Amino acid sequence: MSVSSPTSIDRRDAGYLFYFLLLANLFQYMEAGAVPALLVTIAESFDMDSGQQGLLGGVVYLSLGIGGPFAGYLLKKYEHKLVVGGAVIFNMIFTILWALTPVGQSFSTLMFITMRFMMGLCQCIVCVYLPLWTNENAPRDKRTTWMSYLQVLHVRATINCCLSVVNNVCA
Questions:
Q1: Taking the CB of residue 74, how many other CB atoms lie within 10 A of it?
Q2: Tens digit of pLDDT for each residue in 96-110?
Q3: pLDDT tier at 132, thresholds 50, 70, 90
Q4: Is the full-model pTM beyond 0.90?
Q5: CA torsion 51→57→60→62, rounded to 10°?
Q6: DSSP of 6-37, one letter per residue?
Q7: Is 80 exceeded by the pLDDT of residue 14?
Q8: Sequence-separated (6 or more) residues with CB below 8 Å from residue 86
Q9: Contact 136, 11 (CB under 8 A)
Q10: Which of 47, 77, 83, 127 has minimal CB crowding within 10 Å?
Q11: CA–CA separation, 140 vs 131, rounded Å?
């Protein structure tokens, strides 16, 4: 499956686009660090029991696993710009709804967990697409390095967010 567009991307443009995608992905993964770091506060705010806390922690990974085959189908059937752009836009919408979830309502906990599930579905498309795009468009001599950046990004974003919460930077 070819991931590149009909017009080829020159090396400099590919580098700029890669760093933009890397930065966008970094921000996307920061919520993965925020939830564990803020779990006690979230659980108290939404009056969650331990089962709901576990579901909140795992639902994004469930959606990533469920969405993988669906993401591959969408990327194969439709134009990549449309699919990835739509995923990023919907991820922003679900993130805003997630942040604006009212506290103390009967539906609050379910809405909070559902929005995180939907965010995971949107993130799944980017998770599937970025390695394919990188393999296709990275300069041959930098392909392995670019792939390693993609692999390390999730861990780095999670750690950064956890540390900033622990140090009361973004809490």
A1: 20
A2: 999 999 998 999 999
A3: confident
A4: no
A5: -50
A6: SSPPPHHHHHHHHHHHHHHHHHHHHHHHHHHH
A7: no
A8: none
A9: no
A10: 77
A11: 14
Rounded Cα distance between 137 and 20, Å, is 14
Q: Which amino acid is at 111?
A: M
DSSP 8-state symbol, 138: S
Q: How many CB atoms lie within 10 A of CB 94?
A: 20
**Which residues are within 8 A (CB) of 160 and not within 5 positions of it... i.e. 6 or more apart?**
30, 33
pLDDT number for residue 151: 79
Contact between 5 and 130 (Cβ < 8 Å) = no
User: Integer distance in angstroms from the first to the last C-alpha of the chain?
Assistant: 43
- Quote the DSSP letter at residue 100: T
